[in-house]
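Workshop exercise sheet. Pairs work together: one partner reads the sequence aloud, the other fills in the structure field after running the prediction. Swap roles for the next sheet.
Pair: D.N. / O.F.
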Amino acid sequence: MVPWTVLAGKTVPAAADTWGISGPTFLWLYLFAGLLAAAYGFTQRTRIVDATSAAPIAADALTPAETAMLFDNRRPVLAALAQLRGYQLIDSTGAPTRTPTEAENAALEPISRSLLGHLHTSPRRHMMQLALATGGEVRNLRRTLAKRGYMIGARQLRGFLLAALPLGAVLLLGLIRVIAGLANHKPVLYLVLAMIVLVILAGLVMRPSRLTRRGRLAAADAVRRFGHLRPGNRPAYSSYGPDSGSLAIALFGAAALWSLDPGLAGATGTLAGGSSGSDGSGSSCSTGGGDSGGSSCGGSSCGSSCGGGGGCGG
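Structure field:
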């Protein structure tokens, strides 16, 4: 049956429901589909982030440079600098002092060897130049840690994108309904608001993250086990071995380099107020703390205000 209305003394047919589905009915179905898509997306994201967390983490699983990479991209360079200083291969200005022995060269991390090669051939010792010179090694570190399940890599990012596809499909359906509703002169305000919420949820599902849960656990465990190297404790790094300064910087950032060798920190332009990380993560490893999927997407209510075509969805 076609509804009729009276307009200017004339009886005219009212616009039929878009697609034969009333606005309130479509909106409730749309919200249900959106909640299902969001639940799937966050569940998949959590599965990806937690994929390797059950595997045991050995106490010596990560080298200082690998540990540093868990926190930010510049800290491995600082850790390498400290390792070279710990082995007395550079002085407090960053200038090389000697060639490492065969045993020392084997003990150095790849990024430390790369950095030493740069210091032998270039007088440029500011952190910006050192980061550029070791960029390839830093990228290798990230790829290696992603393969070992500590960091989010390209494969996991693709997984986040796939997890958000159902939300994308629901959003596309909503867009088509909005266009059809406007063409049919139906109010669509509540549907548009619901779509905005779904866009936010899709962004949360796809958002890049630095560490997997395994990586966060490893970083937190290292900070706990090596808390004695914290700069505030004024440790004598030399008494803990040549790699202790490198590990302290990996865990506690640039402040540890200033504690270890203020001259070297100043010569390389290292900021005293924390890590020199380009991503500004400082000394925290709380990346992806919301990956538990505990997103609240409920509470969308239009109640009885949807009645009478109050803008629910055309």
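Discussion prompt: Confidence is low (pLDDT under 50) at residues 1-9, 274-310. What would you look at next?
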